[in-house]
Specification:
It is built from 14 helices and ten strands. By secondary structure, it is α/β, with parallel strands linked by helices. Helix 3 links the parallel strand 2 and strand 3.
């Protein structure tokens, strides 16, 4: 059993090393005409001052298309200040689909003839200046049909936030292959032509998860999905312990309600690691514990280099808080990961953005507004 344990830990370490060794060093960008960045915001959006500053600093030009439900004063004020650079589309309130999806569908219907490249972002990210240009690079060069970055959480104060960040970092630093990539809606791009061929309005209709719907449609249509490995995009993580746990469960519930097979594969891998850690701590003795901690420290050191290589210094300092869990209690990270996965499969209810949704096979079958 010890040799099996050594093999498992070696694989986890090699996976993180693989990610690090495949980080692009040149980080080329493209800046074609006709790029539009699509941003869905809630009506209580505060205007995202820091986000707008970062978007204006992008190395590739674009037009900003903000999708609202129709009553977002901050978005209207931004459009009044920025003029032609910002377009607002009012989607109204959804009846049978996710509110974000509803707004994205309205944005797609409002595209102009000159909009050739579509970039989707979330309102809670801290994008680097290369974000738009890097996402467009594989598309313009004909290397991909859909390009995506991935979220890297910046945990706030508190052990729970750092633990959720550590779980997410396990996913963020997995080896990424084009044949096994799902896009992340917080930083995703595709050409207008691909969007039309996929018929995104139809693909998204009735859905709750935008990126899962687009990713699965891309797979079925045999489109080339490409991860941009150096785009681990900073996303702050704050809140109470229950909210943070709910965030993790919600991410996996999006998966299990769209693709049970994908959830089962991910959960099976984590379950094996969780059981192996249990054996190491209870029956494996000091040699097994030493192997587990040695691999955990090795992963943490490599992840430290990944973080330093893709994030700004201040962002990296916050992301590093998650590494403490990997170094002090790596088994707790694995067990927490499994707990989130199991909890996700216990219900089809997803609370998100002020709404309570019921989802079956990726489709919204019921929704009520929360007080």
């Amino acid at each position: 059993m010890l040799w099996v344990w050594i093999g498992l830990q070696a694989l986890t370490l090699l996976g993180v090393v693989n990610y690090w060794r495949n980080l692009p060093t040149d980080r080329k960008i493209e800046a074609p005409d006709g790029a539009v960045v699509i941003l869905s915001v809630r009506d209580d959006w505060d205007g995202g001052t820091a986000l707008i500053v970062r978007l204006k600093a992008q190395s590739a030009p674009f037009r900003l298309l903000i999708a609202t439900s129709g009553n977002c004063p901050a978005a209207e004020a931004l459009a009044a200040r920025e003029g032609a650079w910002v377009q607002i589309v009012a989607a109204g309130v959804a009846q049978d689909e996710g509110q974000k999806v509803h707004k994205l569908r309205a944005a797609l219907r409002s595209l102009r003839p000159e909009d050739k490249w579509l970039v989707f972002i979330d309102a809670d990210i801290e994008p680097p200046a290369r974000l738009v240009g890097r996402l467009l690079f594989p598309l313009v060069r004909g290397k991909a049909d859909i390009a995506t970055g991935y979220r890297l959480l910046l945990p706030g104060a508190g052990a729970t936030a750092a633990l959720v960040g550590a779980v997410e970092m396990q996913l963020a630093t997995l080896p990424r292959f084009a044949s096994a990539t799902m896009p992340w809606g917080g930083a995703m791009a595709l050409s207008r032509d691909v969007a039309d061929r996929l018929d995104l309005d139809r693909v998204l209709a009735g859905r709750l998860s935008d990126d899962m719907a687009i990713g699965l449609a891309g797979w079925r249509a045999k489109r080339r999905l490409r991860p941009v490995r150096d785009l681990l995009v900073a996303s702050p993580l704050e809140g109470k312990a229950a909210d943070l746990l709910g965030f993790g469960v919600r991410q996996y519930r999006h998966i299990v309600t769209n693709s049970v097979g994908m959830w089962a594969l991910a959960t099976g891998v984590v379950a094996i690691q969780s059981a192996a850690w249990g054996w190491a701590l209870v029956w494996g003795g000091w040699p097994a514990v030493a192997v587990g901690y040695g691999a955990a420290w090795g992963r943490a050191l490599v992840r430290l280099r990944i973080i330093a290589g893709v994030l700004e210094a201040a962002q990296a300092a916050r992301a590093q808080r998650s590494l403490i869990w990997d170094m002090v209690a790596p088994f707790a990270v694995t067990w927490a990961h499994l707990a989130v996965q199991v909890m996700a499969a216990m219900s089809n209810r997803i609370v998100w953005g002020g709404w309570d949704y019921r989802v079956r096979r990726g489709r919204v079958v019921g929704m009520t507004r929360r007080a």
